[in-house]
Amino acid sequence: MKSKYTMSDVSNRLKVSKSDVRRISQELEKQGYSILKNGNTRKFNELEIHSIELIYKEYKLSNNLYNAVKMYLSTINSSPTINETGQNNIDSFTSQYLENNHNNYQHNESTQIEKKDDIIEVAFNPDSNQSKETTQRQFDQIAQSNDIDSIELINNKSSDSKIIVLNEHHSSASSMNDNDQELFQEFMTKITGLTEQNEQILIQNNTLIQQNIEKDQKLEKILHSVEEKSEELQQLVTVIEEKDEKLEELFEELEEREITRDAQVMRMIRELQETKKMIAATEKKSWKQSIKSLFVKQKNNPEKQNRFV
To answer: Coiled-coil ranges per the record (predicted)?
Structure first.
């Protein structure tokens, strides 16, 4: 397959006149698109041929070459690639997650600060002889009476008493940490999903590229076969032309022979007619001379005439 095509090749391939191809090329160059030139001759690649085909179709619909070229150039300039699209999705989601995580951190920090105001300290002097189960039941009763979610027992260094720290936001803080973990897991899951999606898009892109390469190879084989067939047809046309020339020469020779033969026949016919005329004239003359000689003999022998009388 050719890597570069002339204007005639593009015209023959797209079934478009050379003047239209030239006008589209000039308009592309006016609007900033560069086409390879070899001297004064433009050279086109496959992508440029496809571009000219699309622009020509749009030009036929809108009947405005400037707008058709401008719309095509704006389309190819604004179309992102597949890799850029997948990466933009990941970057957008990452930025959104980091922003949300920062907001959650600020919220958790403010919650931790507020927790200090909600801590309740209660002095408690348990009996040293009572069991842990009894002490725990007392803790539960204190928590229930104060509507507290959790209880923490802290030793008071200044006295023998125990300080019960009642923190009603403990469980909510734990749940907040769980929410952060869930958000992180969700974030990682979505990142993984986007990565897999991007990989699938890349695989599809590579598959399409491979298919296009295979199609180009098949097209190259077809074009090569067509070129070979064209050469064979050209050779066949040359042979046919040579045969036609020989046939024309043979027909001319036959015509000349026929003309010569007809002339010979006519000459023979004329000679035959002249011969017949000569024979007829000779016979007529001989007959007249015979009769004349007969009468002359009678006149010269009168005795014989008298004898008969």
So the answer is: 216-285
